[in-house]
Design brief:
Length: 348
C-alpha cells in the first residue's frame, strides 16, 4: 500500500437531515484522508456494508439509544472489513472483522470495537445478515423473550426481512406454528418457501385481524413485532392468555411524522400479555453461542436466507431507500471493494 498520507477513502457523509424517506440529496460522496491507526487501533478496508433500518433513526436530530449522526460525518453502518494495518495484538493484517466501519472505503477503528467475522466457509456477507446482528436479534428475541413452546403459535411481522425470516425459521425448529405478515405477494411466496405455515400479505387484505384469525385458529402465543403501528393493534385482538410480545422494531414510525400509537391496551391487560423489548446491543456477549448454532443450521439447510447485494459505495443511498421502503427482500448489502479475495483469512 502507498504511504497513508497519499491515500484517500471515498466516504458518504450526511449532508442534510431527511424528513421521511432519505433521498440521495441528503448524502454526499467525499474523499477523506486516511488516518494512521494509533495504539490499539486498526486500519481496515471495508468490503461489504450492511444497510439496516436502525441507521435511519440516527439520521434524526432527536435522542435515541445512540447519538445522532452529525452533519458532515460519515454515515454509520455495520461492515465486514479486512485488516490492512494493525496496532493491536488481537488482529493481524488480512484478518476479516465485523464492526461499525461506516459508509466508506477505509476506516480507522479501535480493535475492541470489532470482532472476527468467523463465518468461513460460508459467504462473508452472512456475517452481516443471517449470521450477524439481525440473526442474533431474532435468536435472542425469540428464544429468550418470546419463549416459544412447541405446538404454540408465533406471529412475526416484516417476515421476509433479515430478522423476521430467521424468527419464523427458528420457531419452526422449535415445532411452533409460524405465521408471517408481509407487504407483497413476492414476499409472501418467499416466506412460505422458507417453511412458514402461513403468511398474510397485508397489502391484499381489508381486515388484517380477520385474516390472522384464519391463520391462527388457536390464537397467538408469541408476537415478534418488527413494525409497530396498526399491525400491533390487529394482533392484539387474538392474543392468548399469558402471551408475549417481543418489541423489536417500529419501522412503521421510522420515516413518518404520524406516530401510530396503540389505541387500546385492554386486550393485553385482559390476557396478561407481557411486553418484552429487545435491544440487540445488550446481547452481543451471546454472539459466539448464537454463531455456533446458526452456522450449523445454515449448513444443514434448516436456516435459509436471501441477500440483495448491490455493487459500489455510491449506490448506498438508493439501496438504503429500497431497504427502508420495503422494496428489498432479505438482507440489503453493498459490496464496497470491487474484488474480494477470501484467501487472507484462510492462508494463515
Ligand atoms: N431491537 C433491535 O435490537 C433490532 C435489531 C435489528 C433490527 N431491528 C428492527 O427489526 C425490524 C426488522 O429489521 P430488518 O433488518 O429485518 O429489516 P427488514 O425486515 O429487512 O426491512 C424492513 C421491513 O419492514 C416492513 N415495513 C412495515 N411497515 C413499514 C413501513 N411503514 N415502512 C417501511 N417498511 C415497513 C417492510 O416489510 P413488509 O413490506 O413485509 O412489511 C420492510 O421490508 C426493523 O424495525 C428494525 O429496526 C431491531
Amino acid at each position: 500500500m502507498d504511504s497513508l498520507a497519499q491515500r484517500t477513502s471515498k466516504s458518504v457523509v450526511l449532508h442534510e437531515r431527511p424528513a421521511g424517506i432519505p433521498q440521495s440529496e441528503h448524502f454526499r460522496l467525499v474523499d477523506r484522508s486516511l488516518t494512521e491507526p494509533g495504539k490499539g487501533e486498526l486500519l481496515c478496508q471495508n468490503l461489504y456494508l450492511s444497510l439496516d433500518p436502525f441507521i435511519r433513526a440516527r439520521l434524526n436530530a432527536g435522542p435515541s439509544y445512540a447519538d445522532p449522526v452529525k452533519i458532515g460525518s460519515v454515515v454509520p453502518g455495520l461492515t465486514a472489513s479486512r485488516v490492512i494495518l494493525s496496532n493491536s495484538d488481537q488482529y493481524r493484517p488480512g484478518d476479516i472483522v465485523v464492526g461499525m466501519g461506516g459508509w466508506q472505503e477505509y476506516v480507522t477503528i479501535t480493535a475492541t470495537e470489532v470482532r472476527k467475522a468467523g463465518v468461513d466457509p460460508l459467504p462473508l456477507t452472512t456475517a452481516l445478515g443471517v449470521l450477524g446482528m439481525p440473526g442474533l436479534t431474532a435468536y435472542v428475541g425469540l428464544l429468550d423473550m418470546g419463549c416459544p413452546e412447541p405446538g404454540t403459535t408465533v406471529v412475526v411481522s416484516a417476515a421476509a426481512g433479515s430478522v423476521g425470516s430467521v424468527v419464523g425459521q427458528i420457531a419452526k425448529m422449535r415445532r411452533c406454528r409460524a405465521v408471517g405478515i408481509v407487504g407483497s405477494a413476492e414476499k409472501r411466496q418467499f416466506v412460505l418457501d422458507l417453511g412458514f405455515d402461513a403468511c398474510i400479505d397485508y397489502s391484499k387484505t381489508d381486515n388484517l385481524a380477520d385474516d390472522l384469525q384464519v391463520c391462527c385458529p388457536d390464537g397467538i402465543d408469541v408476537y415478534f413485532d418488527n413494525v409497530g403501528g396498526d399491525t400491533f393493534g390487529a394482533v392484539a385482538t387474538l392474543l392468548n392468555l399469558r402471551s408475549r410480545i417481543v418489541l423489536c422494531g417500529m419501522i412503521s414510525n421510522l420515516n413518518s411524522d404520524r406516530i401510530q400509537n396503540i389505541q387500546d391496551l385492554r386486550p393485553l391487560f385482559v390476557k396478561r400479555t407481557q411486553l418484552r423489548p429487545i435491544l440487540v446491543s445488550d446481547h452481543f456477549h451471546r454472539y459466539d453461542e448464537f454463531l455456533g448454532s446458526a452456522k450449523a443450521w445454515v449448513q444443514e439447510g434448516h436456516l435459509r436466507y436471501r441477500e440483495n447485494i448491490v455493487r459500489g459505495l455510491e449506490q448506498s443511498a438508493s439501496a438504503f431507500r429500497a431497504a427502508l421502503t420495503g422494496h428489498a427482500i432479505g438482507k440489503q448489502i453493498v459490496e464496497i471493494a470491487a474484488s474480494f479475495n477470501r484467501s487472507p483469512e484462510r492462508l494463515r
